User: Fold these one by one.
Assistant:
Number 1:
Amino acid sequence: MILAWAKRKWTYFAIAALIAFLVLIPFDWFLGRYTSIMIFVGISTMVTVGLCLLMGYTGQVSLGHAAFYGLGAYFSAVLSKTYSLNPWLAMLIAAIATGAFAYIIGYPIFRLRGNYLAMATLGIGLIMWVLFNQLSQYTGGPDGMHGIPYLSIGGFDFDTNFKRFYLVWFFCLAILFLSQNIVRSRTGRALRAIHGNEAAAESLGINVTQFKVKIFVLSSVYASLAGSLFAHHLRFVSPQSFDFLSSVKLVVMAVIGGLASIWGAIFGAGTTRFLSDEVLLGLNQYPQLDIIIYGLILMLVMIFMPEGLFVAIKSGTLWLRVNWRNLPAIMNRKRKELPNQMKYILGRLLFARLWRRTEP
Amino acid sequence: MSQPILETRNLSKAFGGLIAIDKVDLKIDTGKITAIIGPNGAGKTTLFNLIAGVYQQTSGEILFNGKSLKHPPWYARAIKRGLNREILGDKLQRHVSAHMRASLGIARTFQHVHLFGNMTVLENIMTGQHTRSKYGFFGAALRLPKARREEEMINLNAMKYLNMVGLGKHANLNALSLPLGQQKLLAVARALATEPKLILLDEPGAGLNALEKRELSDLMKRIREIGVTVVLVEHDMPLVMGIAEWIIVLDSGRKIAEGTAAQVQKDRKVIAAYLGEETDSAEG
Amino acid sequence: MSADLFVQCLMSGITQGSIYALIGLGFTIIYAVTRIINFAQGEFVMLGGMFSYILAVKAGLPMPLALLIAIVIAAAVGAVMYLLAIRTARRASVISLIIITIGAAIFIRGIAGNRFGVNAVSPPAFTDTGSMKFLGAYIEPQALWIIGITFAVTIVLYLFLSHTMVGKALRACAVNPSAASLVGINTKAMALIAFIIAGAIGGIGGVVVAPLQDKYDMGIMLGLRGFVAASIGGFMSPVATVIGGLVLGIVENLAIGLDWGPFTSAYKDVIPLVVLLLILLIRSGKLAAAERAG
């Protein structure tokens, strides 16, 4: 009986286990040496969740999301350093300003469709990047800004990686829980309805454009908060962190994590960060490997698993649980069929155009 | 008899050079089941789209419960309070959008069902309750008590409509796993969940077998009983003649006849439009 | 502004505008036939330039042969990209296709950067006469090549699209793919051809601009301007694309030459972005009006 209850509530157990795991990471006897990377994973997850919600639920892609991330970082940096504002207040102002900006550009942008919308986001991202570079009297130009103060509560400064780890993951988990609640609610249903069929959603009284803008604003606020935390962590910001490639990396994280998945965002951000930091630092003799891999991931995942890698893995394990008894038979059958299937696919790919008939 | 729930005056819709709806005047009486029939291409779905607010008419007016759907409610109220129309002018005439019409009480279903394939059967209906609930981002994110109470209400209401169409035991299945006939019932339940005063059913009988069509007729009668006016577009003549209390016939964008089933069946113009008194139900 | 400076800006504007026009044509061809925006278009240009250098300088092949092979390689990459990345994504959503082309773009850039290094090198110009004076402005002979070749490509493309069977088939796909397949046009083959043409045109652009170029990472910025040129043509009209490209090039150079307000050369990159956003705004406004009218 208890077992049955436990099986139903397994998500709660999984999340509790995850939190326990996270809490222990910064300790040296556990995984302490990964503390710094995990801080970045936490920050990236915050941005990724917003992007996943945006891309997964409204079906719109944002190719310039690093702009909001950068806005948060720069607002925080400038307000807390140049104007000596309380860093928390700066963070709040940054979030509000970024959200307002997203709101203003949101309505005209979301009247566009598909390709044009993507290009608009790309354009916004590039313009922000150029501004970060050019408005040097505020932003320090291409060399960036140093000396950003720490966040602190009372007299307690978040001055070590250890302390900042908990700060960042507190925010990150809070955002994940809030997003989870939103998705499970009336608002979440409206978003899923929009994703499912816009015309039907509209007929049920859902103001589609307004929702798309709202999610856009929400994702921009998430990105802004993440950017602020980033600024107070590195104590240094520069435009390099917010260029087109950064926006692409965010899309990679979202794609790996699953476009409409929330907890998958941790997976996406985590794998991408570990990929870029750990694995590739050791492979200096293979330059550009990171973007080669990103490109491959983007292509392969979107071709074969458009819902995202994490979601595909989840459904894969679900399928496994259901079908594990038949596995040997299935593998046998696959082994026999595979060569013919490959020949067929290859033949179609290469020679179909030579066969002068209309494709189905 | 009270005022008609829906009225169109001189309604026209042109797509570039193609005139889809040509100066159509019609009245839908409250509480009656009205059918709109006509050969293919007559403009029936376009008419629905105009009423539902998906298209904006090229000219003419649509009145819902006496209020024009050209102006949003606040503007109509301003007009009533005597603000000079010439001052405000035509420029402020805004089209009441589709989602606003849903909250005003106009619901509709689609020819191709358009269910939300990424949700369960029950969730589809709960989405229909969207306009009748209020809590937003903050209530949802923080799971405030008001939000949780509203969610309970939504759940209960959705189950009510689900049982009304007889799909209660499928509540947690994915919406697309139902056979077509039941999907259509689900679509109706979803539209009903918006607690409308008027429901537009676009070819509800298409793809249904005889038994399902009988259930559909019964459902429409039940809908009428709870006080919702039903308008349907249909091709299946026996179904229409059996259930409709008033029939409007369109051809090439114009209204060519209206009346009771008996009257319409004898009307020469209608017969001419269809080239035959009985049409086999064309599967739409 | 002196007449000389004006003419100088005009000439460099036309030169650069021609490149934008070429890249824009690549976007337009693919979009018209397949409704896909190929974010990797700029990479075709990069490949053309890169291979022209490798083949002409490193491998020592005679210039015309090297250029031809470079263009063929770019076209081949376009074909492979279509076959492997796009055709296999059966009925992918718009957002998926966008991400796929971006993935392809950075993949190609990464492989190229990995194999051939990130440092920029330029092949020699096509003809080696010194700069000439034309209407009071100095002009590199390479610039004349650029303008001339762009002109030639435009004419050839026009003739191809209007007078050959394949060209007409492409236009049919652009107008209505389902109707086109109903009359026996193999739309997938047409899509492949569109990608090959776009690759070739991109390659030509790269080959022609490489002697003047001094940056490796030009893919994005050039691609962006080509995109803007194409969007001026609504992605459907090659003529408008070419005109758009030229106009963009001229406006850019004039703005810098005239030193209008904030347009220092550092802000040069903002100009295409502003034009792009203007076009998108106009489009968004038109869409809103159209939506209201149904």
Note: The beta strands of chain B are 6-15, 18-28, 33-37, 59-64, 67-68, 106-108, 198-202, 229-233, 246-251, 254-259.
Number 2:
Amino acid sequence: MRLSTEHVLPSKLSLPRGAGLWIALLILAIASSLVSPHFLNPANLLNVLRQVALYGILGVGMTFVILARWIDLSVGSVVAFSGVLGARLLQLGYPIPTVVACSLAVGSLIGAFNGLGVSIWHVPAFIMTLGTMVMTRGFDLMVARGGPVDPGPAAERFFWLGGGYLLRVPTPIYVFAAVCLVSHVVLSHTTFGRTIYAVGSNEEAARLSGINIAFTNFSVFVIGSFLAALSGLIFLSRLSVGDPNSGNGLELEAITIAVIGGTSLSGGEGSVVGAVGGAMILAIIANVLNLAGVTTFSQQVVKGAIIILAVWVETVRTRRA
Amino acid sequence: MRKTVQWAALVLAAAGYAAPAFAADLVIGFSQASSNAAHRNKMTSGNKEYAEQNFKDTKLIITNAEGSSAKQISDVESLVVQGIKVLMISAQDDAAIAPTIKGLLSSGIKVVTLDRSLPIPVTVHLGAHNKPIGVLAGKFLVDKLGGKGSVVEIKGDPAVLPAIERHDGFADAIKGTAIKVIAETHADWDQEKAMKFMEDTLQRFPAGQIQAVYTHNDNMAYGALRAIQAAGRQNEGILIVGIDGENKAIRSVAKGELAATFTYSTVAPEGIIAAHALAKGESVSSLTKLGKIGKLANGTPEVEIASQMITKDNAAQFFCKGFGDDPECK
């Protein structure tokens, strides 16, 4: 998307970095409002924002991982496991704060295991996280004993986190806003954030300048999995059941969001703001195709094409740079 | 030293394998495909519990292939070594297991397939049919809506037969009435996908434009229900229909949140009842009490276990008799 604007506009008019994403988003929004009269309906826009929030949290987590030039395939399993674990603990009568803390802690532990594998044992991230993806799904099915877990009466109280409203705005949007704010500050305004960019763009240079590479790599996996676990809890509260077979393919959704948002797969480049834009583009496309009554099959074609387009634009851009 | 180890292993193996064969008169094996779905787990536990309580003369040995067709072949071989008279099997992959099953049949072991049939003739197949369930669900809505109205259909995974048949049956039942499917999607049995689609669809069709939601399983029915509740439209009287008869869905039907669910048999305890009868030397025609007897295309006799309609009127009779997690059942 960035590429097309660079081609269309003369270089003297060059836009700030990342502007292409927002122009694409604007065009998409205008097109959507022409396709369906319901698109600009305030209720629908909140609906879209809620979907942005649900997947955006994963996209932001994945941005951290990809910035350090890794990949995390286990997030879909972590989402399912965190939800199932939460549901089981609620069912056993534990109070909500304990349940939330437990699920987040277990999610972070899985991330720590990934981080350990990649940064200390030097297992390629693709293989390491593929392994934990399968392992976590196994734990998930064990805790769930193979079927959906009903949290019982506690579900009604827990529903608010993922399905409720605060000042007529769906609660997950607040959670997402908080996640974005904190992540943005960490990435852009702290030393730790800058070390992630440094490690991702040139590990050797980062090492020579005294950055603790192993710790940085370890941390991004913990952050990614923590956010996946958080997203799992929101899914649980939204659905009020822990479905052990859910979350399949969410890792791809998260990678797509990060990449559409301008995060470079070769590391060192990308932002939280970009991930928000990426999540918006995906959510609007899914929403407007549903509003227009387009069949599931065509939706998959469109979605796949967008993934290829985004990565292609990214590749061409890196080659030109 | 190595010899001793080998002998010890052999003795242990013999003890492990032979003991159950002599402990009871009838040895029946059950090779289950996987354990990652509540329906499948109920098939395993339901048959096991029924055998423990009712068939004291029977030793039921259960193996689980955990989704691997290679493991299922070795599972079946290990059951044969243990001297089974009858094998109950729900295949992970019907083509992969067929040669092994052929060998079993020729050595005189009877084979009962559960839920998933095989491409070769076996002693008997037991299972439910999906198309009649779709028809039942369609007729239910035709009846409830007085033959007219707009329905949203949320389908299963397009690549598998149950989703295709549950759709076809429903389409047949509403044909010729004024009931229209105004929006449809494949949500792949996934609750979150169903909910997301329903959220968008509720925006597309304002109040009064949707009379019912037909979903291909209870899991997705919940997704639709949650979306309707979250949009504050639960008082519009949108009828939500699910399929499977999960315990949790049965409770929701009783509460009026779901309009109906239709059971998809877990073949428990019908599976063990049939296997036990065959092990005792009874013929397939004695199984009429379990369901309607017919024939599959490959000539295998089949017992079709009918679906039961669960609505608010009869839901209480079905509490805890479905499958899946339900804290109130323990």
Note: The longest strand of chain A covers residues 165-166.
